[in-house]
Amino acid sequence: MARHYESGGYVVLDRNWQVRGGELDLVLTRGDEIVFCEVKTRSSDRFGVGFEAVDHRKQRFLRRTAMSWLDSHGLHGRLRFDVASVVGPRIEVIESAF
């Protein structure tokens, strides 16, 4: 998934960053924008796509974890939260998902 973003000019700042009670799959930047991407991988979409797993509760959790990441790295900028769904070789990204 990181390669997908890198091909678009993004720089990966962190992968699988963990803090007590939370994890961020990908943290990227391009220009003054910091992107937090939640990656959902499925072997098939038979039981739904990954996007569906990022409900309001998960969104609050990701926002809180992102604030911890920003505090620990002393960075700031425009923030964006993406959700990526990976099913086999197919990658779909919803930019600014929430």
Any idea what the CATH architecture is? 3-Layer(aba) Sandwich
Strand order of the largest sheet: 1-2-3-4-5
**Span between termini:** 19 Å
Low-confidence stretches: none
- Largest β sheet strand count, sense and barrel closure: 5 strands, mixed
Strand tally: 5
Q: Structural class of the helix and strand makeup?
A: alpha+beta
Q: Might you state the CATH topology name?
A: Trna Endonuclease, Chain: A, domain 1
Give the helices and strands as they follow along the chain. Answer: HEEEHEE
Number of domains: 1
Mean pLDDT: 92
Give the overall shape.
globular
CA radius of gyration: 13 Å
**Percentage of residues assigned to helices:** 10-25%
CATH class: Alpha Beta
Residue share in β-strands: 35-45%
Number of H/I helices: 2
Explain the overall architecture.
With 98 residues, the protein is of the alpha+beta class. It has a single domain, classed as Trna Endonuclease, Chain: A, domain 1 (3-Layer(aba) Sandwich). Helices cover 23% and strands 44% of the residues. It is built from two helices and five strands. A five-stranded mixed β-sheet has the order 1-2-3-4-5.
